[in-house]
Amino acid sequence: xxxxxxxxxxxxxxxxxxxxxxxxxxxxxxxxxxxxxxxxxxxxxxxxxxxxxxxxxxxxxxxxxxxxxxxxxxxxxxxxxxxxxxxxxxxxxxxxxxxxxxxxxxxxxxxxxxxxxxxxxxxxxxxxxxxxxxxxxxxxxxxxxxxxxxxxxxxxxxxxxxxxxxxxxxxxxxxxxxxxxxxxxxxxxxxxxxxxxxxxxxxxxxxxxxxxxxxxxxxxxxxxxxxxxxxxxxxxxxxxxxxxxxxxxxx
Length: 251
What we know:
single chain, 251 residues, alpha/beta, Rossmann fold, 6-stranded mixed β-sheet
């Protein structure tokens, strides 16, 4: 039997008497396009931290590509094929776009990055970096320092860094947060072009992006999965409309 790209089985997380994640089970096949939505305080950030290894569950099991990673470090999970972006941009303002991608490529190939992200003198890596930047529309900004770029472009850099790791599972934590409408359209276009052999899990508030991208949606409410299904089913479910979507379901 082929292993899931990501499998979360009965995962719960408590902080003392406060239970913030409640018996969550979720699985992504290879190539899945899955979104998690829910109101503020639903436990989405905690779930992201559990999957990425910043938090350990109180109970339950997490597997990546068939490997149990429940207690594994974030770095170990990257080795098993997980890459993530963060809700808040965490780039280095003084580094160029190419240097950021260079750091990720060097890490993936087990090479030491030279001063501040400079790519080792290997033409194949430079070609790969150029290809990645072109794929996300950033090649013309390769030599530009991040500090001088608009916020929307910085979010695309984070996606490029994640893609440089060649993940089996890409976890996007609110990639559209803070983006103007024009940049959101560019982000959606990029997401739709992602390789189909990569499973993508998006945690997002932008319902327009979610319903255009996801093939399956999980609704998280008060730390538990309320409903999981295809977008049309989720959109029309009265419980979902009551707790979260409301009139935005039409967007």
